[in-house]
């Protein structure tokens, strides 16, 4: 048995008093931008007919601290968690970029500057993201009860590892990062730029 399999089995053997359990492996070698961990927030609008639209623009949420797995820094949330609710409490918040947020296009520009693969985001990452979004929505299709003429907006958080492999996807209906609305947090986003 692998460590992951035995770890999952240990969790499942515990007397847990809930119907929901989240099992996740920490990504130890995430792709870094300027030595800092990041994730990407993308938006998906789902209509009452279960048609999904992935917005062309998302944003990158950066950590305030340089990434490290040293024992002394393993519990430092400011290194490992990129969400605004955690980062806004950091002394370095906004030091490198306003609100620790970069435009989605910055990822390809960074890869280009590092001699990374050309068109990686458009040719490789976005197709993987679209596939993962479709799979996740299909998995919960029977649970999505969207009234006629209405829609749901889901935020998807994406991480990739240092081998440029799609490493994590999570979805949330909470689209108010840090208690502010989408329009306030990312005013340059335009909801009219949607793609099915």
Short description:
The protein is built from six helices and eight strands, in the order αββββααβααββαβ.
Task: Explain what this protein looks like in three dimensions.
There is one protein chain. This protein is α+β, with helices and mostly antiparallel strands and 196 residues long. Helices cover 26% and strands 22% of the residues. The protein is built from 6 helices and 8 strands. Strands 1, 2, 3, 4, 5, 6, 7 and 8 form an 8-stranded antiparallel beta sheet that branches. Strand 6 and strand 7 form a beta hairpin.
Q: Layout of SSEs?
A:
Layout: H1 3-13, E1 32-33, E2 36-47, E3 52-55, E4 59-62, H2 77-80, H3 84-87, E5 101-103, H4 106-113, H5 120-139, E6 151-160, E7 166-172, H6 182-185, E8 194-195
Antiparallel strand pairs: 1-2, 2-3, 2-4, 2-6, 3-8, 4-5, 6-7
Distance between the termini: 41 Å
Percent helix range: 25-40%
Shape: globular
Can you count the beta strands? Answer: 8
Main sheet properties: 8 strands, antiparallel
The total of helices stands at 6
Low-confidence stretches: 174-196
